[in-house]
Design goal:
- The protein is of the alpha/beta class.
- The protein has helices at about 20, 30-50, 135-145, 155-165, 185-205, 230, and strands at about 1-5, 55-60, 75-80, 95-105, 120-125, 130, 150-155, 170-180, 180-185, 220-225.
- Helix 2 runs parallel beside helix 5.
Length: about 260
């Protein structure tokens, strides 16, 4: 049993403000510890339920947030940027299930620190429908036959996941009270729930169903203002213009920008 984990920061327990998720903010070091602890909870639960290996992909911002010396030594870690598949870097057909931890809602949603890949993007649409990072990353997983078995984050993204991912388990570690405000569980309680949910996910192998992956996709990202060329080039959808439709490469869309 091989488990893949993609972990973001905005959906981690006890995190709700920009100061906590931007390197250099006085709350950022604490957020690193909270993020690492939630990764460990999922790793522990997965191994407890019989996983043979766990691969973790650091998926927030500069993608070097997790504290390596505090991470469960049984897991391997992908970190740093740029990465060809960004938040889904490393996922492969050899994996049995994916877990998305610390995820947040899409740009324009009422979730905590809601955005889609970059604050420069007002909205990202796939085949005409607004999508979250979780939904795009689930397509990356589906392209290699891997289902999403667990998602953790605020109540908004958990509600999205329950509708979008067949058979997924969710752990809502906080309730959104605004873009930078939340009603959060204690970190200890959240970790307990994540550990239990990760174990249940691994044990419930028969309930996994991967998302359907369209053969052809139309991608559109709308920027808040005309971006700097360096930002436009980082999105296959912008490609020199603030809003432009562009089909992602087949079979797996390749992308790398801030998350």
């Amino acid at each position: 049993m091989r488990v893949y984990i993609s972990i973001d920061m905005e959906g981690v327990t006890g995190i709700a403000t920009m100061d906590q998720v931007v390197r250099g903010g006085h709350g950022y070091p604490r957020s690193q510890r909270l993020m690492t602890a939630e990764a460990n909870a999922a790793i522990e639960g997965a191994f407890e339920a019989g996983a043979d290996s766990v691969l973790v992909n650091d998926s927030h911002g500069t993608m070097d947030n997790l504290l390596h010396e505090e991470l469960d030594p049984r897991a391997r870690l992908i970190f740093g940027t740029p990465k060809l598949d960004c938040m889904a870097e490393g996922i492969a057909a050899e994996h049995d299930v994916a877990m998305f931890l610390g995820y947040h809602a899409a740009a324009g949603s009422p979730g905590v620190l809601a955005h889609t890949y970059s604050s420069h993007f007002y909205e990202v649409r796939l085949n005409g429908r607004p999508v979250s990072e979780a939904e795009v990353n689930a397509l990356q997983a589906a392209a290699v036959g891997v289902p999403v078995g667990l998602l953790t984050g605020d109540d908004v993204i958990c509600g999205v996941a329950e509708k979008a991912f067949p058979g997924v388990r969710t752990v809502a570690v906080k309730v959104a009270h605004g873009h930078t405000a939340a009603d959060s569980l204690s970190p200890a309680e959240a970790r307990r729930l994540i550990r239990e949910a990760a174990a249940e996910t691994v044990r419930g192998r028969g309930s996994w169903r991967r998302s359907s992956c369209p053969r052809c996709s139309s991608w559109r990202s709308t920027c808040r203002a005309r971006p700097r060329p360096s930002w436009a080039r980082r999105s296959p959808a912008c490609a020199g213009s603030p809003t432009r439709r562009s089909p992602p490469p087949s079979p797996r869309p390749r992308r790398c920008w801030a998350a």
